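Annex B. Sample input.
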Amino acid sequence: MISTSGESVSYTLDNANATVQALNTGQTLNDSFTVTTVDGTTQTIDIAINGSNDNAVINSGTPHDPVMNSNVSVKNFVLLGTSITSINNYNLSIYGAVSGTGTLRGTNASGINFAGTGDQGSLLMDQSADGTTNALKTLTMSGSGAFTLGSKAQVFDALQPNAGTMNLNGVNLVLHSDATNTARIDPVTGTLSGANNVTAERYVSSYGNRAYRLLAPMVTTSTSINANWQEGKINPDSLTNIPADQKGYGTHITGLNGHLNGFDETGSNESSLYAYDPLVQDWTTIDNTNINTLDAMKGYLIYIRGNRDSLNTLTSVDPVLGPSSIATLRATGTVKQGDQAFTGLQGNGSFSLVTNPYPAPLDWSKVYAIPSNTANFEDYLTYVDPNVSLYGGFVTINAAGVIAPAGTNAGMNIQSGLAFFVKAKPGVSSPTLLIQENDKGTINNLDVFKPFRGMTGIEGMQPSTGTSKASALPQMSISMFYQDAHGRRLADGVVGVFHDGYSADVDHDDADEINNWGENMAINRGGHHLSIESRPTITAKDTLPLFINNMGTQDYELDIQGKNLPAGLSAWLVDNYKHTPTALDMG
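Annex B, continued. Sample output.
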């Protein structure tokens, strides 16, 4: 019980719908409190606002600012004047309408669910501390009604337009990303309108080195690359750093003619941002970040040095020893909804760069299961893991869940903010890749954006997320490592998979590799360089012939591991230079 005796307040208590008025500062919804009424009597009132037929009226301004102490359900929520009601790490379900000029104060652990019918009013969040008081873990529309976002909100886990109409009303909604999670928009099974001012963030970690990433903006912007990924800042010369207004945000992007074309100036003005030209199957530089906008359907290769806080991350040219830092990139624009078609892609066995167009993870097994995708494309995708090789390297994941090189951070769940390659089947011309709302997933894998250090072997690396049928297949993985200033680094690797259903010939069950910028390893079979080869069950002698190039003048280590292989197998590593076999421990 919370005593407020001695303070004159007014209240009403209607037994028909449990209307409560004059809650006071610090008092909790779903509690009892004592009031002294205007006629001088003292009474205890059980608020008990916890049902879809209960109404709550919060009086104007302090001291009438209650705090929730449990999950609460309410019908009509009237927030008068400048009152502030704290959700306080709990969930608030509204079955009627929210109204008034008062606000709701959230946290990154609280949730609001509009569960009613008809017009459910306008949601006003407390803006006194941006990213804190206007924060929500989840914002959900589960009823058949409609609500409108009336002020800025930051979502830390999921926006859930499950039913009815969620109208963002052109108001800024931020999908927050940090070291623990990246917020998403779940499949839009209701109506999501006014989603043209959504800020999608992508947290990119670092363990002290720089690397390339294949990124997508998650929204389509009307403003420039500079206004978004560079936070609207430009270093005018190589000795001056202009940081972002918010610490840790944005990155330096360099290119031809430096600050004249929207880039951050360096001594060389070497390009760090590229687009993919499918006609030549190679990269082209972005020529100006002031005039080019970001497109959720277009992927970019970007060399991430770190955030904009310090000039040190820009001036050093050493990718290993040069300083780096965590960077959060963000873009503000319109969210893609519904089915998205990447049309006119390269055919006849060529690669095309596509994106995850949604601010949500994608399950590749679902994407590939769409009949037109199965008919037109090979079953694997390829993207860049910053952990592989000196500048980042390409990893391949097929629909069965086989990943090469083994042990990378990659997985079948394509994270929001990722671009990736798909490969058309031979004989297919100008195919279309279809991606659908229900292909979205929930698995959050921040590790695909950061290097992982301190590996002691393949088993010491971060596991891929999710489960797949590949976990039961007999496999042999061959991975190449070397030492640098940060420890043991994965250079590249391949995987051989064995099953009765596979052919010894190169076919659709095998995956062609994309060459790394650094060390490169492939299985050399039938004129193809493969990152994943699928072969029949081993019943006699078999060979995985390796192709290796782009080696440096240093020591390398091969880590060879078998998984689910039948008992009794013997294997050797044969050195074609020295013509010497080395027996492998199959245990």
